[in-house]
């Protein structure tokens, strides 16, 4: 089971007033909302000039199809001028964002349902039902995805200038080929942020706060954190951290034992939260695609 939130729906959710979480379910929900809000604030803003340059390039291609050379020349001049404005800046970036979207997909099932789905996928693949298996696998996501389409500042302006030269020489077909190639070399960047480790971190922090006055609730939070890490592992989210899922589970167990005993788990909580934070940060994946068909 999963829940996909559009950017517009997400924006509406973020406008709500936060409620202090108490139960493990509320802590989980609060962690997801906080993560979405943080990502929303850090989303790359598109570069206006870059967007306009791409739109003008597309318009130039339309003009070339209509054999309107003069309009195509004027459009190219405007597009080149837009990018010259960016190039004039001392710290001009290599990639200029022209579009950025964020989608949050939250898996709402438990570990058992993940395992059942994976078992079904294996059975489907065994009998060659690849597409049915693929659709089931698509449900096994719990993440925030940020996709950014970028214009490469190194090559795009040069392509426009070369196209302008071809137009000046009367080579309309060559100019069109260059512009089409330029539009196909937009760079796509994707950042994948797994949600289960974020939830686990929030649950452990909630357990730390509850441990002194409500041991029972603290233990519930820790058990819920353990469940989230098991789900993360089952969903295939990995981390470049030296800390493993097994090591995190062992740390949670140490904290649980301390809470049940003398309840002097302060330092153990700090150690656990530190390891999980590093694990969480290094579980974020960055996918860079050199070419994107437009």
Report what the structure shows.
The chain has 294 residues and is an alpha+beta fold. The protein has a domain at 24-39 and 195-284: Four Helix Bundle (Hemerythrin (Met), subunit A) (Up-down Bundle), CATH 1.20.120. It has helices at 7-14, 24-42, 48-65, 69-87, 111-126, 130-137, 156-168, 172-184, 195-210, 215-234, 245-260, 266-281; strands at 2-5, 95-107, 143-152, 186-194, 285-292. Residues 1-21 have low confidence and may be disordered. Keywords: Coiled coil, Signal. InterPro entries: Uncharacterised_YfdX. Residues 1-21 form the signal peptide. This is YfdX protein.
Provide a concise account of the structure shown.
Helix content is 62%, strand content 15%.
Secondary structure topology:
Elements: E1 2-5, H1 7-14, H2 24-42, H3 48-65, H4 69-87, E2 95-107, H5 111-126, H6 130-137, E3 143-152, H7 156-168, H8 172-184, E4 186-194, H9 195-210, H10 215-234, H11 245-260, H12 266-281, E5 285-292
Antiparallel strand pairs: 1-2, 2-3, 3-4, 4-5
The CA-CA distance between the termini, in Å, is 32 Å
Largest sheet: 5 strands, antiparallel
* Radius of gyration over C-alpha positions, nearest whole angstrom: 25 Å
| CATH classification, class level of the domain at 24-39 and 195-284 | Mainly Alpha
Indicate the CATH architecture of the domain at 24-39 and 195-284: Up-down Bundle
Q: SS-based structural class?
A: alpha+beta
Oligomer: single chain
Rounded average pLDDT: 87
Anisotropy-based shape:
elongated
Count of DSSP-assigned helices? 12
Q: What percentage of residues falls in helices of 4 or more residues?
A: 55-70%
Strand order of the largest sheet: 1-2-3-4-5
CATH topology of the domain at 24-39 and 195-284: Four Helix Bundle (Hemerythrin (Met), subunit A)
- Helix-strand pattern: EHHHHEHHEHHEHHHHE
Uncertain parts: 1-21
**How many β-strands, per DSSP?**
5
Strand percentage, roughly? 5-15%
Keywords: Coiled coil, Signal
Protein name: YfdX protein
Pfam families: YfdX
Organism: Hydrogenimonas cancrithermarum
